[in-house]
Amino acid sequence: MIVVTGAAGFIGSCMISRLNQDNFNHIIAVDDFSFPEKNKNLEDKTILEKVEREEFFEWLDKNHLEVEFIFHLGARTSTAEFNRDILAHLNTEYTKKMWEATIKYAIPLVYASSAATYGLGELGYEDSEEIIPNLKPLNPYGESKNDFDIWALQQERKPMFWAGLKFFNVYGPNEFHKERMASVVFHAFNQIGKTNAMKLFKSHNPDYKDGEQQRDFVYVKDVVEMMMFLMHDRKSEHSGIYNVGTGEARTFLDLTKATFKAMGIEENISYIPTPEDIRDKYQYFTEATMEKIRKIGYDKPFTSLEDGVEDYVKNYLMSTKRY
């Protein structure tokens, strides 16, 4: 059995699809299954059993001998969530329980951290574990993820293999339910579809022209390939915290132009002021350093932004198909 938490969510459901492609069909899907729109992501997936999030550890106590690997991808992922009790429970304390259970039962673990831990990037975007205690996330979500990374690194007892993954700007199918937190590609597709135009934030930084703010946009199909690699590799000496991006920052203008092209609509791009309440915390540049996972043997190329957007738009967004 392979456990995937956050199974009905964006990355979790894509991970299950990728596992199914390689005939890993004894999947234990863990989530809060009370959201109908999210549950659509699990249609046509091969799953052995669904387990409610708050009942999982009781289930694991009874079934741990059959569990081969755990992908802990479930979390409260909203950067607009300011209820620290919710974030502490779902993102920090729940993951501590997962960590301790995987030690107890000798199960390898991959868990979701976040590039939100890097804050404004004052210390760069290198996945060095030495800088983690000094990072300054910009919101409680990022803090909750960094709090767990710090805690994990302090532990003397660790899982037989473990990896914390700092996801950068992931986009791709199965994010229909994420609403405001969905990727810029998703929002661009919907805005262009309704208005034949796209509004981007103006730059309030003299070093960047309007629309040339940059992010490391990574296609979800590349993300799941990296996780598949870690599952098969799972060497104890390769345990640690890894960036999950492409290593190449691209502009919002590049992304928007790629979306217009994939939709077959003539470009019509204008700019609006960045809202004042987020202007002082707005990131103008993020770019993952990817040498660490390359050094342990991950050698697949990353999907270009243009190819990823084209696949996402034409094969998923235009048909509301799931991956």
UniProtKB/TrEMBL annotation:
Note the SUPFAM superfamilies from the entry: NAD(P)-binding Rossmann-fold domains (SSF51735)
- State its cofactor: NADP(+)
Active site location: Y141 (proton acceptor), K178 (proton acceptor)
How is the co-factor bound, per the entry?
Binds 1 NADP(+) per subunit.
One Pfam family this chain carries? Epimerase
Q: Which positions fall inside the NAD-dependent epimerase/dehydratase domain?
A: 2-245
Top-level division of the source organism's lineage: Bacteria
Q: Which Gene Ontology BP terms does the record give? A: ADP-L-glycero-beta-D-manno-heptose biosynthetic process; carbohydrate metabolic process
Keyword Ubl conjugation listed? The answer is: no
Report the EC code(s) recorded for this entry.
5.1.3.20
Question: So what family is this one in?
Answer: Belongs to the NAD(P)-dependent epimerase/dehydratase family. HldD subfamily.
Q: Which PANTHER family match?
A: ADP-L-GLYCERO-D-MANNO-HEPTOSE-6-EPIMERASE, NUCLEOSIDE-DIPHOSPHATE-SUGAR EPIMERASE
Q: What is this protein called?
A: ADP-L-glycero-D-manno-heptose-6-epimerase
Species of origin: Flammeovirga agarivorans
